[in-house]
Structure formats: structure tokens, C-alpha cells
Predict the structure.
Amino acid sequence: MATVQIEEQMNAEASAAGFASGYESGLRDGACEYLVRHLQPPAPLKRDSRVLYIPQGFEGIDQGIIEALRLTVREVYVADATRMAEQAALIRPDWVLVLNGLHVFPANHLQQVDTVRSLGIRTAIWFADDPYVTAETMYIAPRYDVVLTHELSTMQMYRERGCTKVVYMPLGVDHNRFKPMAVEEKYRSDVCFIGQAFWNRVEIFDALVPYLKTRKVFIAGGLWERMKRFKEMERFIRLGWLPVEETVKHYNGARVVINLHRTTEAGKDNKNVLNLPGRSINPRTYEILACGTMQLTDQREDLPHYFVPGLELDTYANTVELRNKLEFYLTHEEERRTMALRGLRRTLNDHSYLRRLQQIGEVLGW
């Protein structure tokens, strides 16, 4: 009889927990749906320009830019980096817009840029990896007519290397991909982090192990074997690259997502040979909030220009503060949900790639 009563009690507790979780998720999903439905911006008037776009291969960024371009200018063409000059000669666009110009770009990338410019076609590059690859971007930038960068610290460096027009242009988010959605239980977690295990991240997560072990945690990315306490956290870690669609589901299923910018220190997981500081926020800042999820992020100088800390997301300065704020938001549901919804609203209003491409169009005179 006692065994039956214990089982009934356990079933009742599990049922109550499931109801509470479902109720909590329902509140969040309904509020997110309302915001997304009512904050859709009107389609802008298209500018009378023809743009050839050269993607970097960043799925979460490239597709958002391409779709925004199609709403922004009269004609949009997309070409592989290996055929940039060839396609520019055939299409004769007003502008060639290149994302990043790194990693997958061919050895003759800069010669192709020279060829495009010799045809009288204007060129612009939008750097999305600054300041982590200054060893390369310091030579790429001067070959373009206009340099756009999301990182404040690199602007003077590009000017000193002869770039005549350098524009601070933050990144944004593709709301067609990063958006609120209901997800299965397997995607739910208390704490989520998705990204490579750069050394500064390893240090902080090692220090958080005693706390994280008491929570439901999801971590994904490469190099997490670097952790001194990896074995203690291994059950929470998915090693390797996580597809964008899976990332979105894990963001949606998390109660709190941690954002931790990678170190800018020269020689530590980067090619920042000039040792420039990181002053600007990463794309993850926008992407997490676009999913309607509470974000705890480390501090960057330009963050208050785009979000209000303590209102639309929250920040931490060290491991102790991160641990304390995790505990606070995981035990204060209303505060956590309200902040996440404010962050979603701000992101929908101000930080879409459509808004960014409109800004770029004004800067470049499309």
C-alpha cells in the first residue's frame, strides 16, 4: 500500500510540474505571437538600384541580408565569391556588396575586386568578424570603395590604412529564421550556451560547473573538451557545429541563454594581430532576443545603443555575478519572462536586416 501511495504522489507531483511548465510556456508563446504579429514593419519603397551580393557562407546572416536586399532595391543578384568579377562584368550592377571576404573566398579575391572597380562598379565590404581577423582584414579593406564594420575598435585602423569611407554598421537578425516558436521537451533547458569553446569561455564555464550541475543545461559547439571539468559536464554538451534551425529551437526552449563574447587577446583563438579591443556586440545578441528568450550577456561598450541593460536583457561582469543572476532569473519567472518579451519587442522594432539594409542604402546612395 505504501508503495502505491508513493507512486501516486510522484505521479501527482510530475503532473503538477508538467502543468506549471505548460502554463508557463503557454504564456510566453502567446505573448511572443502577439508581438510578432503586431510589429511587422511595412515593406519599404524599393530603391532604383541593382546590387550584386557576394555571401560569406554564414547561413544565419547571408539569407537575412539577401531577403532584405530583395525588399530594398529594384534588382538583386547573388554570386559565389569565385565568380565575383565574371558576374559583375555580365550583370553590370550599380554596387557589389561583399560580406566579410574571408574563409571561403578564393586566393584571387582582391584581384577580382580590382577588376570590378576597373569596370566603374562601386564596391562595399561589410566585415562581420571584426576585430578577430585583423591580420587579414587590414589588407582587404583598402581594396574596396566603402568599408562597413560592426566593430567600433577597427574604424580608425581602416582609415589609417587608406580607406576613404569607413562606416560603423552593426549587424542584425534574420527574423524569418530566428523567431519564437513552440518546441518539444527535448529542446527545453534552464541554461543554454551555443558557441565555440574559446579559452575565455572555458575559464568561466569551468568555474560555473558546481552550479550548472544542479540545473538542466544545454551547451553546443566545438573544443569543449578543453574544459578541466569536461567529464562532469559531458552529459550536457553536444560537441560540434549545430545547424541554425536546431540553434533556434534550443534558444526557444531555454529559460536563460548566456552570451559570452570571445576573447580579443592576440594569439588566443584569433588573428587579431593588432590586439584591438572588442567594443561592439555580436550577432548572437540579436538572435537570442529574436527568439523571445531571456539573455544574460557580458558587457560591450556599444550595447546600450541597441538594448537597455536591466530592461531588455541583463549583463554580468564576472563569473560570480553571472551565477547570481542565473539563480535570480531561474527563480523569478515573471521578471524573466517580462524581460525576454521586452527584448523581443526591441529586436523586432529596430534590429532586422531589413532595417540595416535600409541604413546601408542611405549610406551608399542606392
The radius of gyration is 23 Å. Residues 255 and 309 are 18 Å apart (CA to CA).
